[in-house]
Automatic annotation (TrEMBL), chain A:
Residues 126-219 form the Acyl-CoA oxidase/dehydrogenase middle domain. This is Alkylation response protein AidB-like acyl-CoA dehydrogenase. InterPro entries: Acyl-CoA_DH_CS, Acyl-CoA_Oxase/DH_mid-dom, Acyl-CoA_Oxase/DH_mid-dom_sf, AcylCoA_DH/ox_N, AcylCoA_DH/ox_N_sf, AcylCoA_DH/oxidase_NM_dom_sf, Mycobact_Acyl-CoA_DH. One of its GO terms (cellular component) is plasma membrane. One of its GO terms (molecular function) is acyl-CoA dehydrogenase activity. It comes from Tamaricihabitans halophyticus.
UniProtKB/TrEMBL annotation, chain B:
SUPFAM superfamilies: Acyl-CoA dehydrogenase C-terminal domain-like, Acyl-CoA dehydrogenase NM domain-like. Its cofactor is FAD. One of its GO terms (molecular function) is acyl-CoA dehydrogenase activity. It comes from Tamaricihabitans halophyticus. This is Acyl-CoA dehydrogenase. InterPro entries: AcylCo_DH-like_C, AcylCo_DH/oxidase_C, AcylCoA_DH/ox_N, AcylCoA_DH/ox_N_sf, AcylCoA_DH/oxidase_NM_dom_sf.
């Protein structure tokens, strides 16, 4: 276990300054910030960001990316999240799908998808969870049956974030029966969300928002060329994908904008309780950010990380939930999603969506067992 | 100090690994300190790190001293290294005074302290009542700040001139009351920047470093113990409820370590208030959580005086309160951030470590 502090290089600091300038121009003062990765879906913003070279930036130039480091991507991402920028359209494709395509995709898939993702024009959802398959992902029942030139997919995916807005989703399904090891025989297929047989129905979130969906697939034809990676290696691919996305700034910055607006609207000078809450939150943000950054640096240096990303996600997401409670305890306001106060609106949203922080991308309980195995070595 | 980072911790571990092993810690406790460990560290010049060589120190910087202190915390060594290096050593050398053989401790300004200086360079007289001075009993000298007609002076009091009222923290480390009414040999106007605020900041960094060492050791102990202790026919680390304790301890120990590492690295040349406050807050919060989780995971063995865990948790429960609790530092930090305004918040938080190794 080694989380090492890291000093940003002059080039990295320069990148950060550029992103800050960009955000000052692009986000109007009255902009209502989003809560981390659940921010607004804004195609225009994603395209502008892509034009600046900051979508899919770690992808090699020959596929439309900039060949930048994990730390560079970290810097851009933390600036976007801390400003509550509307990253909803491209975020999953940028964080998750692009690296998976680069690692496992066929040459044709890379050439087709990566430049479009890097342009901010091609958006992905994740098709893992099912009604009877959550933490125990290997139990998925969606099947793909081989037919002439491709596959026919049948099954139901749930909690599919953004499926009603995005273009594709990577579907984990069974391509051969599970006799013996159920981790065998699973594959990932890239499914066009506008294909015949795909039905997308909204599942309304606790706050009424339409964020995720049920996606039912009935005899959806997927051409052979859309099998992602090795047939039958879906399990290994999905687990490596989940560990890759685990430790980023989206795991501790969801409520940073809420905190910033608390400070902005605070009556000066703060009461001792208020000052104490501010100091304690700032200390934790400062520390957890450095843990997360150290994972990014280690990835760039090719150092293997086992337990660390899971630890960062657990500590980050649980901190986010404590931060909500701490802000609430000093805010002395009744929560109203329509309040005139930006802080009160953000806090209302944070309270309503907070429980999902420790569920999405693998629950706290599951993460802990991943982390524990890594700690034991 | 020319050693590379990491090798200092190793060297210190080599020196006090046995002298401050669990059995040695137990034997030292009734004495209020671990004299053999102090002597060995002093012989190897680790008790004057960060004090310039021309003032009787071994050179090096605050980050080096923090590395020594992390090792001191890890071995639960009852030695006044933070006091000698970071407090007295700094105040005396800054005032142009040589650091006596030591150990020298320093009173950093307890709210109830009073210290009045009278006289002139020919003859100084000190009247002082000091509280919770670390290891005053064992110190050859006690340094403090005393006012001479409202001008603070750095004053050095030989042990013989101090009346000691023994006290201790939860780990039996001496935290004494001191009364002085005597003629004192040394008093020099305090140079700019030497005041109770900056002294407390250094003390807090020193304790945070020691806490991070103790937390790292508890992490190791818990992993080892839960991996060997068997109940219901398997090692207890197979139970999810126990895994929860293990993971929680690892998280907080690592958070404490990275906070201290950044604060110490950035303390070249001087510690920064945000960094040190953040490190003391994070270590203080971690101490309560880790101690509770580690005791739960260990069961009754952890509650025995002989077992190493308690030597570490009793220190964490003490050190988190010394040189300012998490509440105090949070309040101070919060006031500063509120005054700086919302626009400055993210730029400050996203400034982590800024100083490289060489
Ligand atoms: C906002 C949000 C967005 C999401 N977006 C997507 C998406 O886009 N695509 C997608 O595929 N999925 C998505 N998900 C689903 C998410 O991945 C699942 O919620 C998650 O994997 C947990 O599955 P579950 O909800 O079925 O809970 P379950 O697995 O049924 O778990 C219920 C409880 O039991 C516990 N539990 C289960 N197994 C164990 C065990 N072995 N040991 C200890 N405890 C256990 C869990 O930790 C949890 O507390 C999203 C979820 C949320 C909240």
């Amino acid at each position: 276990m080694r989380f090492a502090t890291t000093v940003l290089t002059p080039a990295e600091l320069e990148l950060r300054a550029q992103v800050r300038d960009f955000l000052r121009t692009e986000l109007p003062p009255e902009h209502k910030p989003g809560l981390g990765m659940a921010a607004e879906h804004d195609p225009e913003f994603s395209c502008k960001l892509a034009a600046a070279g900051w979508v899919g930036m770690a992808i090699p130039p020959k596929y439309g990316g900039r060949g930048r480091s994990v730390v560079d991507r970290f810097i851009v991402t933390e600036e976007l999240l801390s400003a509550g920028a509307p990253i909803g359209a491209h975020f999953v494709a940028d964080r998750q799908t692009a690296p998976v395509l680069l690692r496992y995709g066929s040459e044709a898939q890379r050439e087709y998808f990566l430049p479009r993702i890097c342009a901010g024009e091609c958006w992905f959802s994740l098709g893992m969870s099912e009604p009877d398959s959550g933490s125990d992902l290997a139990s998925v029942r969606t099947t793909a049956r081989q037919v002439d030139g491709g596959w026919l997919v049948n099954g139901t995916k749930v909690w599919t974030s953004g499926a009603h807005k995005n273009h594709y989703f990577a579907v984990l399904c069974r391509t051969s029966p599970a006799d013996g090891d159920r981790h065998e025989g699973l594959s990932q297929l890239i499914v066009d969300l506008s294909a015949a047989g795909v039905r997308i129905s909204p599942i309304h979130f606790l706050n009424g928002a339409h964020h995720f969906n049920e996606v039912s697939l009935t005899d959806v034809f997927v051409p052979d060329g859309m099998v992602l990676g090795q047939l039958g290696s879906g399990w290994q691919q999905v687990t490596s994908e989940l560990s890759y996305e685990r430790a980023g700034p989206d795991r501790f910055l969801s409520v940073f904008t809420t905190f910033r607006h608390y400070l902005a609207e605070l009556a000066q000078p703060p009461s001792p309780q208020a000052a104490r809450a501010i100091g304690s939150l700032a200390a934790q943000f400062w520390t957890i950010r450095q843990l997360s950054l150290s994972v990014a640096r280690a990835l760039d240096e090719g150092r293997a990380m086992r337990a660390e990303p899971a630890l960062v996600k657990d500590i980050g997401t649980r901190f986010e939930q404590r931060a909500i409670e701490l802000l609430r305890s000093v805010a002395e306001t009744e929560l109203d999603p329509e309040s005139d106060s930006m802080f009160a609106r953000l806090l209302a949203e944070a309270v309503l969506t907070g429980p999902s922080f420790t569920l999405r991308g693998g629950t706290t309980e599951i993460l802990r067992s991943v982390a524990r195995k890594g700690l034991r070595g | 100090m020319s050693e590379h980072r990491g090798s200092i911790a190793e060297a210190v571990a080599g020196i006090i690994g046995e002298l401050s092993g669990p059995e040695a810690v137990r034997l030292a406790e009734p004495h209020g300190w671990n004299e053999p460990a102090w002597r060995a560290l002093a012989e190897a010049a680790f008790t004057t790190v960060a004090v310039p060589e021309e003032h009787g120190g071994s050179g090096g910087d605050i980050a080096d001293a923090c590395e020594v202190l992390t090792a001191v915390g890890r071995f639960a060594a009852a030695v006044p290294v933070a006091e000698n290096c970071l407090l007295a050593g700094w105040a005396l050398s800054s005032a142009g005074l040589a650091l006596p053989g030591g150990p020298v401790t320093m009173a950093v300004g307890h709210p109830a302290d009073t210290a009045v200086l009278r006289g002139n360079t020919a003859s100084w007289r000190l009247n002082a009542r000091l509280h919770r001075v670390p290891w005053a009993r064992q110190a050859t000298h006690i340094a403090l700040l005393a006012d001479l007609e409202e001008v603070p002076h750095v004053v050095l009091v030989p042990h013989a001139d101090a009346e000691i009222q023994p006290g201790s923290n939860l780990a039996g480390e001496a935290r004494d009351g001191v009364v002085v009414d005597a003629v004192v040999p040394h008093a020099v106007p305090a140079p700019a920047g030497i005041d109770t605020g900056t002294l407390r900041l250094r003390g807090a960094l020193g304790r945070a470093a020691a806490m991070s060492g103790a937390l790292a050791r508890i992490n190791e102990l818990t992993l080892a113990y839960t991996g060997t202790r068997q109940q219901f026919g398997r090692t207890i680390d197979r139970f999810q409820a126990v895994q929860r304790h293990i993971v929680r301890i690892a998280e907080h120990a690592n958070a404490a370590a990275i906070a201290v590492e950044a604060a110490a690295a950035n303390a070249r040349p001087l510690p920064d208030v945000f960094d040190v406050a953040a490190a003391k807050i994070v270590c203080g919060e971690a101490s309560g959580i880790v101690a509770a989780a580690a005791h739960q995971a260990h069961g009754a063995i952890g509650m025995t005086k002989e077992y190493e865990l308690g030597q570490l948790t009793r220190r964490l429960w003490s050190w988190r309160d010394e040189f300012g609790t998490e509440a105090l530092w949070s309040e101070l930090l919060g006031e500063q951030l509120a005054a700086a305004g919302a626009a400055a918040l993210w730029p400050r938080i996203s400034t982590g470590r800024v100083v490289g190794n060489e």
